[in-house]
Design goal:
By secondary structure, this protein is of the alpha+beta class. It is built from two helices and eight strands. The model has no long low-confidence stretch (mean pLDDT about 90).
């Protein structure tokens, strides 16, 4: 299983697809990076993190305090949402709890 630990994150829903937009803050020489996951199939949590398990077998370990993305990556994220059309939207944490049965065991 491939594990990712992004600096920032946001969920996007479009039709039946729910993907995790993961972002890493760069610096002067490297710039910001981002990745859109395959379909999120399960979410677990502990006191500090959400663990998003995807269709491809990856796990994204996301801090509960980092549900945000950089200005540069937010422009890319907005384009992805726009490209998906009218049924695409950003999933907030309340809606995330409605969409997933989130367990406390992250194993």
């Amino acid at each position: 299983m491939k594990t990712y630990t992004p600096n920032g994150w946001a969920l996007m829903k479009s039709g039946t697809f729910i993907g995790l937009f993961a972002s890493w803050d760069g610096n002067f020489t490297t710039g910001d990076n981002w990745r859109l996951s395959s379909d999120v199939e399960a979410v677990k949590e502990d006191n500090e993190y959400y663990y998003f398990y995807t269709h491809s077998g990856s796990c994204y370990t996301c801090s509960k305090n980092s549900n945000r993305i950089s200005v540069h990556n937010s422009l890319i994220f907005a384009r992805l949402v726009y490209r998906e059309g009218e049924d695409a939207y950003v999933v907030n944490e309340d809606k995330m709890h409605e969409l997933f049965y989130i367990t406390g065991d992250n194993k």
